Amino acid sequence: EAQLVESGGGLVQPGGSIRLSCVASGFIFGSYSMYWFRQAPGKELEWVSSMSKYGEDIYYANSVKGRFTVSRDNSKNTLYLQLNSLKTEDTAIYYCAKDGRGEERGQGTQVTVSS
Questions:
Q1: Taking Cα atoms as reference points, which of 29, 36, 108, 34 lies closest to residue 76?
Q2: Residue 85 contacts residue 18 (beta carbons within 8 Å)
Q3: Distance from C-alpha of 95 to C-alpha of 60, rounded to nearest angstrom
Q4: Other C-beta atoms within 10 Å of 45: how many?
Q5: How far apart, in whole angstroms, are the C-alpha atoms of residue 46 and residue 34?
Q6: CA 105, 93, 74: angle at the middle one, nearest 5?
Q7: What is the pLDDT of residue 57?
Q8: b/e per residue, 4-40, with b = 16+ CB within 10 A?
Q9: Phi and psi torsions of 112, nearest 5°
Q10: pLDDT of residue 31
Q11: What is the number of helices (H) and of strands (E) in the chain?
Q12: Residue 112: beta bridge partners?
């Protein structure tokens, strides 16, 4: 059974940085494009970033482009998301997913941006 476990969230001040990790198990991680999504309170699930299986194709939502960086280490079955220059509107639960609709995602990790 596929499992995704996110970690690294927390409370950070505006302008700060944080790195999220997602450890995958139960499937061949290196054979899948991977995705980050987020969901803010009272809002729908929002796609944040995508990375192809070898990292050759990377995409970001306009709202995070230039501030967030996705990466992966296939030897560790791990996906990362570096969040820089954080804004209060980045506050959300962040999920990694193995499908482009976010239906096969982990339990999420909370990121709160507040002074």
A1: 29
A2: no
A3: 15
A4: 17
A5: 15
A6: 45
A7: 97
A8: bebebbeebeeeeebebbbbbeeeebeebbbbbbbbe
A9: -120, 120
A10: 96
A11: 0, 10
A12: 11
What is the pLDDT, as a whole number, of residue 96? 98
**Taking the alpha carbons of 44, 57, 70, 109 in that order, is the dihedral positive or negative?**
positive
Reading the block at residue 48, the tokens are 């944040």
Alpha-carbon distance 4 to 39, whole Å? 17
Per-residue pLDDT of the chain (115 residues; tens, 9 = 90+): 999 999 999 999 999 999 999 999 999 999 999 999 999 999 999 999 999 999 999 999 999 999 999 999 999 999 999 999 999 999 999 999 999 999 999 999 999 999 9
Q: Both tokens of residue 93?
A: 């639960």
